[in-house]
Amino acid sequence: MDIALDEARAAAGRGEVPVGAVIVDPASGAIVARAGNETRALNDPTAHAEILAIRRAAAGLGAERLSGCDLYVTLEPCAMCAGAISFARLRRLYYGAGDPKGGGVAHGGRFFAQPTCHHRPEVYPGIGEAAAAELLREFFGARR
What we know:
Blueprint: H1 2-13, E1 20-25, E2 30-36, H2 39-42, H3 49-61, E3 70-75, H4 79-88, E4 92-97, E5 122-124, H5 129-142
Parallel strand pairs: 3-4, 4-5
Antiparallel strand pairs: 1-2, 1-3
Active site: 50 (proton donor)
GO molecular function: tRNA-specific adenosine-34 deaminase activity
InterPro entries: APOBEC/CMP_deaminase_Zn-bd, CMP_dCMP_dom, Cytidine_deaminase-like, tRNA_aden_deaminase
């Protein structure tokens, strides 16, 4: 999660919402991909940290499915990202701060709880929550 927090800090430094994501192969401990939000830089509303990390991991591994890999992300994924996590067949999701407004895992539509969800990763919330929440508070506080 520390590396995901580094990605979030880098995103904030670029003026992006500070969310970072890292995909790890737990068998080797290797980082497969890492990313921070790039929606502004790419003018792409889908360029969330999770989506970018999934794209990079799939390209790097040469596979559309990331079975056996784990995702660490600093903020509860939105419904779009939860869908991508499911389709990528990620094994586990670890996330930091919950997102009552835009989250799609423990809040909102609760994507993985829906009967139409074909793959549900193991979910571990609250990992590095205090640090992730503080980054978001500082970022948005400076803009108000």
